[in-house]
Q: What sequence folds into this?
């Protein structure tokens, strides 16, 4: 009995440890600090509602980056993809006179197509995902500038505007969209065999291929899904601003990437995961919000995101080393007691066999 | 140089047991032995990569006059895109001068003089990737020699002739003799026994971590050397008693060709274990990938269990009941950062997949617990990352993941590489068991003893083609090694067996 209690207790301690959910502790710290420093503005309900709504699009963008990243593809074109979709949905309405109910599906389809193209370039063209999506990003930005003539597109239909501003029970539509996207992504990645294969393909493409996993198809599929979700974010963004704004999309790349990497240090011990990503977006946003409320200049968000990205990646590297150390520590007492009957342990593997 | 009484233990495995090696100036010493005999470990200890548990390594001379050790690995360590001149310059310690402009002419003439010592003349301005393999080897040797303040050093060449064919080997050997003539000690590691006999002043044979022979090269013949390498105790390894009935023809392949392999026929019945032997570069290590479909290949006929299988890919192979345990476990055997559970279920997730593609967590846990128990994986922790298991236990997990669905065809590449003796026996038992349950097994191994122990029949490959097929009483370690090295068809020792390789292009 007592040993069972011990293991459940250890499990809970592990789950609540700083290593596992550091972002929640950081969130609590940020919350406490700003509640004391600037209680009047920081603790207003309106501030939190705006934050929830405003960051929902960042979360969607982050999930769009994360899905291909699970299969091992960087998508640096995410900002351009969002911007492109945002302009496309506006152009289709204003310049081609389409009803928004037609324009939106077409835009989402275009997003998926862009994902397909980047997937084909990366897998069939064998171009590194970093370079491929960087190139694609530049091409998309050119297309975006051409469609919009680098100007805001105004005069969108009223109904379209209603999408992002409408709300149920005091919570805006983009927040619901975010929850739905996150739930689906979570289910597929962590609860299905497709998701299992996606993680495997990302960790060790050749090893997975030899285990019968169709790595190429998974990579392309992940980029298509990412492109589709990016287009969703683009549509919501244009709807919220009520203009096709050519400059806002690209700015989402950095916060999205930061959140994905910071999120990977949460809950799943170094694995990219949806809830870690969602949490990371809001922790970062809360920090930035607090800093803005005490009167920091607008560039503080760039600074904050940049520092957080480096810290997140650094933390995950450190965690890898720490994980190894703790593994050894866990081993030592067991090995000492059981050494005589089972002497085989790991360094055998490091010995490269003779030819 | 002198290394005396070296002992190196890895947990569960004594890699080197009281090994001594003495190399004198002007001498060429050949170091010979099977995979896992301890050659690599010894070289790593000499180089200081590992520290010996017991024993010492000493070099002659003091201060500036102390002998130094240079190792040239099989891949030579050259940058293929850079020219000879640039490659030779890489070894120089830059210091402040690193930012000074390179002195083109001086470097060129320096390089020319270095190369000229070996009596070879080639364009030192073109990228080394475009040079002939033997010329590349000379560049590597020249670089090792560059900066020697005195010639009494030690040069270790790790299988330098592996990628060369006969005429080029002569070029390399004359370069080695040249280095030795200058007063350096040369240690030459090779699998090619005929070459060893040709060049070595002295031959040191390692087997199972011990020096079993340290004899003069002159007066040694092939047969004696083969016996030293394989060991007289070869006969005592226990072959399993096979009681099984041969089943239907599971694998029927005719004229299988791919990069490095030409026109191989393989037929395996259910319950049969067929081995593939051959030295490195013979195509032995490529064949399993061709059969499994992870490398492109062509074949006149390719039938699995009586059905034609033409569009080969790993995914399709898994669906058709083929299983492949790759040789490079660290890179391809499993997903290192995923848990044992996730690795075990990866090739076939259908058994644990419920509605809407969801994984039935409890069923998966039960399955992986059962398998870790059955295959005696220690520790039996399903959630431990694959990378954190020892080599032998990793291999057991790889076996568990493939054998859990009783594959029709089991393809194994170096199944016991880097695995200690206990796990080795367990893995042999699993292979026997799989055959007993009706799998057709293909084992590719560099370990002749292993093939004799496991197989009903062994195909011996050399230079990409099958040169012999041994069964029954013919299937002995000695014969495998002879055929693998191409010694069997040389009628008298005076004819050079290497001529068989002339005109081959790799």
A:
């Amino acid at each position: 009995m007592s040993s069972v209690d011990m293991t459940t207790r250890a499990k809970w301690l592990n789950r609540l440890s700083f290593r596992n959910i550091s972002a929640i502790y950081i969130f609590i710290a940020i919350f406490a600090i700003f509640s004391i420093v600037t209680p009047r503005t920081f603790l207003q309900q309106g501030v939190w509602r705006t934050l929830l709504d405003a960051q929902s699009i960042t979360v969607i963008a982050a999930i769009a980056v994360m899905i291909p990243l699970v299969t091992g593809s960087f998508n640096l074109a995410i900002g351009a993809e969002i911007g492109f979709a945002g302009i496309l949905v506006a152009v289709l309405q204003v310049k081609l006179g389409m009803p928004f109910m037609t324009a939106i599906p077409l835009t989402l389809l275009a997003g998926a197509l862009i994902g397909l193209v980047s997937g084909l370039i990366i897998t069939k063209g064998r171009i590194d995902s970093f370079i491929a999506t960087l190139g694609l990003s530049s091409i998309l930005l050119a297309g975006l500038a051409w469609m919009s003539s680098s100007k805001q597109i105004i005069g969108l239909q009223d109904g379209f505007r209603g999408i992002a501003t409408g709300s149920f029970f005091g919570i805006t539509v983009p927040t619901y969209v975010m929850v739905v996207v996150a739930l689906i992504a979570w289910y597929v990645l962590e609860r299905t065999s497709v998701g299992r294969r996606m993680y495997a393909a990302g960790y060790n493409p050749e090893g997975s291929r030899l285990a019968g996993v169709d790595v190429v198809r998974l990579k392309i599929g992940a980029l298509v899904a990412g492109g589709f979700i990016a287009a969703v974010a683009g549509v919501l963004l244009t709807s919220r601003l009520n203009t096709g704004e050519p400059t806002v999309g690209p700015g989402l790349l950095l916060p999205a990437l930061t959140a994905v990497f910071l999120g990977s240090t949460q809950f799943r011990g170094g694995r990219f995961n949806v809830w870690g990503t969602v949490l990371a977006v809001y922790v970062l946003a809360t920090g930035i919000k607090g800093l803005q409320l005490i009167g920091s200049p607008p560039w503080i968000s760039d600074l904050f995101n940049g520092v957080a990205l480096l810290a997140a990646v650094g933390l995950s590297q450190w965690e890898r080393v720490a994980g190894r150390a703790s593994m050894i520590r866990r081993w030592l007492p067991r090995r000492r007691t059981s050494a005589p009957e089972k002497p085989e342990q790991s360094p055998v593997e490091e010995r490269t066999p003779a030819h | 140089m002198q290394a005396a009484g070296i002992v190196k233990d890895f947990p569960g495995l004594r890699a080197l047991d009281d090994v001594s090696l003495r190399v004198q100036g002007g001498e060429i010493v050949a170091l010979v032995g099977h995979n896992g005999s301890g050659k690599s470990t010894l070289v790593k200890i000499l180089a200081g990569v590992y520290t010996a548990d017991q024993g010492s390594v000493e070099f002659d001379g003091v201060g500036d006059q102390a002998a130094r050790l240079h190792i040239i690995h099989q891949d030579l360590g050259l940058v293929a895109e850079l020219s000879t001149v640039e490659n030779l310059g890489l070894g120089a310690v830059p210091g402040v001068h690193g930012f000074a402009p390179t002195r083109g002419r001086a470097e060129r003439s320096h390089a020319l003089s270095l190369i000229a010592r070996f009596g070879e003349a080639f364009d030192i301005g073109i990228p080394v990737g475009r040079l002939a393999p033997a010329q590349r080897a000379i560049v590597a040797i020249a670089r090792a020699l560059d900066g020697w303040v005195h010639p009494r050093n030690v040069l270790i060449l790790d299988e330098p002739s592996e990628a060369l064919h006969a005429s080029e080997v002569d070029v390399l050997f004359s370069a080695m003799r040249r280095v030795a003539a200058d007063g350096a000690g040369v240690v030459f590691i090779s699998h090619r026994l005929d070459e060893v006999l040709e060049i070595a002043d002295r031959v040191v044979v390692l087997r199972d971590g011990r020096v079993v022979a340290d004899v003069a090269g002159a007066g040694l013949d092939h047969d004696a050397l083969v016996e030293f390498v394989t060991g007289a105790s070869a006969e005592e390894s226990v072959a399993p008693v096979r009681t099984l009935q041969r089943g239907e023809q599971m694998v029927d392949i005719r004229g299988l060709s791919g990069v490095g392999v030409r026109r191989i026929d393989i037929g395996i019945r259910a319950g049969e274990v067929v081995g593939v032997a051959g030295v490195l570069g013979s195509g032995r290590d490529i064949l399993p990938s061709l059969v499994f479909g992870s490398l492109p290949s062509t074949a006149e006929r390719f039938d699995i269990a009586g059905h034609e299988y033409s569009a080969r890919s790993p995914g399709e192979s898994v669906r058709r009941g083929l299983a492949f345990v790759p040789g490079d476990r660290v890179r391809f055997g499993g997903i290192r950062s995923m848990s044992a559970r996730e690795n075990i279920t990866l090739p076939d997730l259908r058994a644990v997949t419920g509605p809407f593609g969801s994984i039935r967590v409890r069923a998966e846990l039960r399955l992986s617990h059962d398998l870790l128990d059955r295959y005696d994986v220690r520790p039996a922790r399903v959630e431990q990352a694959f990378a954190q298991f020892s080599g032998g236990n990793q291999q057991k997990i790889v076996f568990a993941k493939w054998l859990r669905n009783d594959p029709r065809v089991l393809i194994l590449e170096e199944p016991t590489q880097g695995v200690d003796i206990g796990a080795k026996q367990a893995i042999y038992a699993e292979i026997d068991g799989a055959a007993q349950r009706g799998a057709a097994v293909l084992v590719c191994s560099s370990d002749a003893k292993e093939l004799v122990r496991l197989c009903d029949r062994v195909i011996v490959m050399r230079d990409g083609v099958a040169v012999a097929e041994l069964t029954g009483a013919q299937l002995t370690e000695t014969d495998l090694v002879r055929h693998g090295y191409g010694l069997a068809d040389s009628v008298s020792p005076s004819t050079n067996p290497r001529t068989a390789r002339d005109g081959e292009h790799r």
